[in-house]
UniProtKB/TrEMBL annotation:
Lineage: Bacteria, Bacillati, Cyanobacteriota, Cyanophyceae, Nostocales
Domain Acyl-CoA dehydrogenase/oxidase N-terminal: 14-119
Pfam family, one: Cyclase
GO molecular function, one term: flavin adenine dinucleotide binding
GO biological process, one term: L-tryptophan catabolic process to kynurenine
Matches recorded under InterPro entries: Acyl-CoA_Oxase/DH_mid-dom_sf, AcylCo_DH-like_C, AcylCoA_DH/ox_N, AcylCoA_DH/ox_N_sf, AcylCoA_DH/oxidase_NM_dom_sf, KFase/CYL, KFase_sf
Natural source organism: Brasilonema sennae CENA114
UniProt-recorded name of the protein: Cyclase
Region (Disordered): 368-400
Length: 634
């Protein structure tokens, strides 16, 4: 089982890396052309097929990739970041594949599914008309051997890309039949016709060739039926999949941020940098909340709906920011900011239901300046509070106040007791009562433990002769933002796993670039082993310990390329149990930076957004200190 899990993780990482490499090399240079030229879009879609990326949620026995919802969401976000037209078009095909997977028509499955991943067969969909109120636009009448279809399908994307599409038509009982019909004008021998309008001139993604299909007495044979669903099924399905289109909106928002960030380097204006930082933080918070919602089946529909509206709102605002910082150049239709802004408009209404419209309008007309949902499950059940810190400048008013916005506070330190796991050779943890309440009028104990026992911080002098002691660490250096990288799955299958640069870059694809001045916390899952010293230290017969840590190359990357303030981990050392050179400790502590070990409750922190307050004992010349670490969580 562990081997299967490890291979699945590798496959998912490889898939996303392959997709990103293709997008950066082949799609980014011609993203604007892809938006309006069908031929260029066709070759872009074919490229995904050549990489076998067009049936991601199809089971492996049908030659699909069978990826998780999380991996599929990340894939959709990647595509939307680099080409709205491409993600828009291929989503139709991926949706059709998913419908066939759910079908009981095995002959259709055998005919289509094995050839969908590589693009040998391309299918579209046409059922958005079922969401409209009033009389049905497309109706199906049961006849001998199948159904007779009449009406209009106002929105079918992929003409001249897809040979066929899955249509939906309303049955007399209010249910709907879904079946495969050609996406080309056709006259049946029985007299049925299917005609198509010219492609619609959309605000964006015109290259995807969206047309209207009109059917008159079209015969849909039973063998072409994908499935039949009861009345109201599409509305329930929309509720169930309310977050499905979120990733296209967040991908569009990332595209807008890319533009703003590129302008920052050319126009070193502080207000542009400030806007970028603010929008990036909000987008990261939104993406984190969406990921958490994916893993929380108990989250109410109303709360998922607010996340959808938040993502739509962010895509629009960040795209608007991209236009703003690009100045007059953004007016040109070929400018990236112009394209991304128009894509944001399309993603606003894609798959729209009345509930989504209402939630989106609610955000657009909200009072005040709150940018995040207010539902208790999303915001941890309390209002936001702010802790004001000192000013950066020496004179009052010369610098902006530092503030910590939070809704909850988490202990990241273990309770200290005499039986906690101890590094071999460390002094024991001892407590001695020196005053008792009934005898002395108060209760007091003396305690003794090593400077690197329990949850603790390592000081620079613990690995460098000229390093400073813990008492010389400034107060300001002990209040820092924290980011959390989760490697539990890797550590589950390999106790000696070390964080590598590829892990960091993959994390940044989901949550944004690691900001300078933060502490990177590595969540390995070892905190769960704390009460079992044998499992926590995991020593083999030779006395060698086994637990995860930071790879030295990853540490150098974080220090040099991301300029972090330090690292932390929920094991007994930031260096893996197999690293007897203490490489990461030595690298980080070349300067008086932060190294935190034996942390806990990392599972309660978001990937970004938390602020750490590290309470260290000011032991003169100390090589470190047990610490009480508090995390202020937004």
């Amino acid at each position: 089982m562990e081997a299967i899990l490890e291979q699945t993780l590798k496959d998912n990482h490889f898939l996303l890396d392959t997709a990103k490499s293709y997008l950066l090399k082949e799609i980014v240079p011609q993203a604007n052309k892809i938006d309006h030229d069908p031929n260029t879009l066709f070759y872009a879609l074919r490229g995904l097929g050549e990489l076998d990326l067009l049936a991601l949620k199809v089971p492996r026995h049908w030659s699909g990739k069978e990826v998780s919802e999380q991996t599929y969401g990340t894939f959709q976000e990647l595509l939307a970041r680099y080409s709205g037209a491409l993600v828009f078009l291929q989503t139709q095909h991926q949706s059709a594949a998913g419908m066939l997977v759910a079908s009981a028509n095995s002959s259709l499955q055998e005919r289509y599914l094995p050839r969908m991943g590589n693009g040998q067969v391309l299918l579209g969909v046409g059922f958005s008309q079922l969401r409209r109120a009033g009389d049905p636009l497309t109706v199906a009448t049961p006849v001998a051997g199948g159904y007779q279809l009449n009406g209009v399908v106002p929105w079918v994307t992929g003409w001249e890309f897809f040979g066929e599409f899955i249509i939906a038509a309303t049955l007399p009982d209010g249910g709907a039949v879904y079946g495969i019909v050609p996406l080309v004008e056709t006259h049946q021998h029985s007299g049925g016709t299917l005609t198509l309008s010219p492609p619609a001139q959309l605000a964006a993604m015109t290259s995807a060739n969206t047309v209207t299909a009109t059917l008159k007495n079209w015969f849909l044979p039973t063998e072409s039926v994908v499935f039949i669903k009861p009345a109201g099924w599409i509305h329930e399905n929309d509720k169930k999949n309310i977050l499905a289109a979120v990733f296209m909106a967040t991908g569009c928002a990332l595209a807008g941020l890319d533009i703003v960030e590129s302008v920052v380097s050319r126009k070193p204006l502080p207000f542009i940098q400030k806007a970028f930082d603010s929008l990036q933080q909000e987008l990261n918070n939104c993406r984190n909340a969406v990921r958490e919602a994916q893993n929380n089946s108990s989250l109410e529909f109303a709360e998922r709906l607010q996340l959808r509206a938040w993502a739509i709102d962010l895509a629009g605002r960040i795209a608007h920011a991209a236009v703003t910082v690009s100045s007059g150049a953004a007016i040109y239709s070929h400018h990236n900011a112009q394209r991304v802004y128009r894509e944001a408009l399309v993603f606003t209404v894609m798959g729209q239901t009345p509930a989504i419209m209402e939630a989106t309008l609610g955000r657009l007309t909200r009072s005040g300046f709150e940018n995040e949902p207010h539902q208790s499950n999303l915001r941890c059940g309390s209002s936001s509070r702010k802790v004001r810190g000192g000013r950066r400048g020496s004179r009052e008013g010369t610098e902006e106040e530092k503030k910590i916005a939070y809704s909850r506070v988490i202990h990241l330190s273990h309770v200290i007791d005499s039986d906690i796991p101890q590094w071999q050779g460390d002094p024991p943890v001892e407590f001695e009562t020196v005053a008792e309440l009934h005898k002395d009028g108060y209760y007091l104990r003396r305690f003794s433990l090593g400077e690197h026992s329990a949850t603790h911080i390592n000081a620079s002098n613990s690995f460098h002769l000229d390093g400073v002691g813990i008492h010389e660490y400034s107060a300001e250096s002990l209040v820092v933002p924290g980011v959390v990288i989760d490697i539990r799955e890797q550590a589950l299958v390999n106790a000696d796993y070390t964080l590598c640069v590829e892990d960091i870059l993959s994390w940044e694809e989901r949550y944004g670039k690691i900001p300078p001045g933060c502490v990177v916390l590595l969540y390995t899952g070892w905190q769960e082993k704390w009460s079992d010293e044998k499992a926590f230290l995991y020593q083999d017969e030779q006395g060698s310990m086994h637990f995860p840590g930071f790879d030295n190359d990853a540490t150098r990357f974080l220090l040099e390329e991301r300029e972090i303030a330090g690292v932390g981990i929920d094991t007994h050392g930031v260096d893996s149990g197999q690293d007897t050179t203490f490489g990461t400790n030595s690298l980080v502590l070349e300067k008086p930076r932060i190294v935190l070990e034996n942390l806990t409750n990392l599972n309660q922190l978001p990937p970004t957004g938390a602020t750490l307050a590290i309470g260290a004992l000011r032991l003169r010349g100390g090589s470190g200190s047990p610490v009480g670490v508090l995390a202020f969580v937004p």
